Amino acid sequence: MNLTQQLYEEAQAYLPGGVSASVRFNRALGYPMYIARGDGCLIYDLDGREYVDMCVSHGASLLGHNHPKIKAAIRQALDMGIICSYDTVYHVALAKKIAGLVPGAEMVRYAGSGTEAIMHGLRLARAYTGREKILKFEGHFHGYQDYVYFSSAPPLDQAGPPEAPVPYIESAGTPEGMKQYIIIVPFNDLEGFERAVAAHADELAAIIMEPINYDAGCILPLPGFVERVRELATRHGIVLFFDEVLTAFRMAPGGAQEYLGVTPDLAVLGKAIGGGLPLSAITGKREIMAHYKPVGKCQHSGTYMGHLVPVLGALAALEEISAPGFYARLNGIGDRLYGGIEDILRRTRVKARLQHLGARFTIYFGVDEPVTNYRQAARHSVPMMLTFLRACYERGIYFHDYGGNVAHHGFSIAHTGPHIDRALEGIEAAMQAVKQAFPDQVRAR
Ligand SMILES: Cc1ncc(COP(=O)(O)O)c(C=O)c1O
Questions:
Q1: 33 C-beta neighbours (distance < 10 Å), count
Q2: Which of 17, 290, 342, 412 lies in the 20 to 30 Å Cα band around 107?
Q3: The pTM is what?
Q4: CATH number for the domain whose boundaries are 3-66+325-441
């Protein structure tokens, strides 16, 4: 038994499923990935095996692991006495920095996780509009709290008709009554969206969306879709709420709102913002943000909101991200990786489709056509995907599995050319393994 297996045995006695967070179990492996340390784009397991990390902390480690500037930020917090629950000059400096980078961020509040920030942001939208319902898109994921943990990856036989999805409760323990506050709409379906707005406009506090739907792999909005959502939200006084937990800083310093050229009323930034440390930010229009106490009547507070360690980490991370040439380098890495995967798919003829934007991507297995909504994504082949992930792992390339749901993968600025080439070698060999195991899923010449 190796050290990973030993720890998994022991962990199961103390941590349900042997993990501290459910999604850390990797179904492709049959156990969780326990990590001894990370450095740049590499991670090391307990048995000393080295992997090129294509999960990068679900997107949080956009700068790679063990970054010297993030370590210096942590040391600065130590020198300041690890003070907690006090604001500092750095909290203001970070808000100012975010406001300078993200188009819709006139004002900022902090939280620890994406889940937490979205909960507080939705409360603010309700306080501002005096309305209670939330429109969300099928296949979009907005964290684990009861307001919106619906239909992020519903089984197709329980999701309702494609043009009028029903809210699917994603977790046991969610009160049925929460369904009354949520309206689920198919993504990229303008008619369905317009129908839902026509029926519920006066009740809607917010339209929440992943502007790039990475949680269903990587689905971009069709031309004109987000613009129309923006237009109708404005017309009906509904808060347009971008969940930029995963998209923030992923393809541009201003995130998806800069990339798409559409500015939301509120946006939550997460993951990459903290450089691997736990920080999220609720950002938005001054007029709406001013509803937070002590100015307005909406509560947002907590002992650990904007803890000094991640605030200093985020300042350092945003310095890096906003340095000249950062995105040219990031896109260069992407070009090399994505061009390589496309070549591999052509050479092996495995029926699979790569979709990507910025530093995040997916491979939809068993899929030929462009994927533009969750229902198409959900028809991917789970067995092919798990075979691929496992074969990559065996070759020292780590991809995470999200419980069989379509997975999103990514890279960091620390992935150098040789690392990408090494990843591509592993991916090519893994694709050959998929081809052997699923001969009926190979395209004709
Ligand atoms: C788009 C999106 N929103 C919200 C969340 C929840 O964020 P967190 O895991 O920090 O709570 C995630 C990721 O986990 C996400 O991808």
A1: 21
A2: 412
A3: 0.98
A4: 3.90.1150.10
